Amino acid sequence: MSDVTRNGGRRAARKRADVLAAACAVVAERGADATRFTDVTAATGVGVSTLQYYFGSREDMLIAVFRFAAQSDFDAVTPRLVGIGDAWEKLLVIASHLTGAVGSDAGWRLWVESWRWALRDPELRAEVLGDYTRWHSLLASVITSGVADERFGIDTAPLVVARQALALIDGLALPVALGDPQVTAVVAGDLLADALGRLVLLRPPAR
User: Fold this and answer.
1) Which terminus of the chain has fewer Cβ atoms in its 10 Å neighbourhood, N or C?
2) How many CA atoms lie within 13 A of 92 on its CB side?
3) pTM (two decimals)
4) How many Å apart are CA 69 and CA 113, to the nearest integer?
5) Phi, psi (5° rounding) for residue 156?
6) What number is the average pLDDT over the span 9-13?
7) How many CB atoms lie within 10 A of CB 179?
């Protein structure tokens, strides 16, 4: 493959990623059912014909948006864990990210939209469940580390606790995404820290 072809392919990939990022914002604001090619065109300046070339149908574009958002969400939190040695601090970073305590709630709006579509689309449903598996695995690895370091006192399988932790996160993130004035991102973060500490049987750090 020539450098020209390779560089052209990279530029096209970056352009498509830029369009997907902008489309995520559109879907988060308008909802999937109300998002059309023309809405994404208005946000990006990319013509409808180009969007059709990138994605095919409107439905395929929306599924691509959900995939892109899920991957971006995961990619955003993992680098923040680098350099953190304490498992409890890592757990709080993941929890604050997922509840919207860090950044905007657009990611959660997209999650809700993807859940709705996944109920009707078996292929997307499998991908959403796969995303959950990925988060469960990340949480379980952190919990395993916390048990090994005696920061967590659980004797339950870390994957079981990870599932419980993510259920707590889901339950508190939804009212944040809905704009519940009684469950702001800060309140959700505090409630979640308390609940997670009880769940993992948090212990003081070793001196």
Assistant:
1) C
2) 14
3) 0.85
4) 11
5) -95, 155
6) 62
7) 9
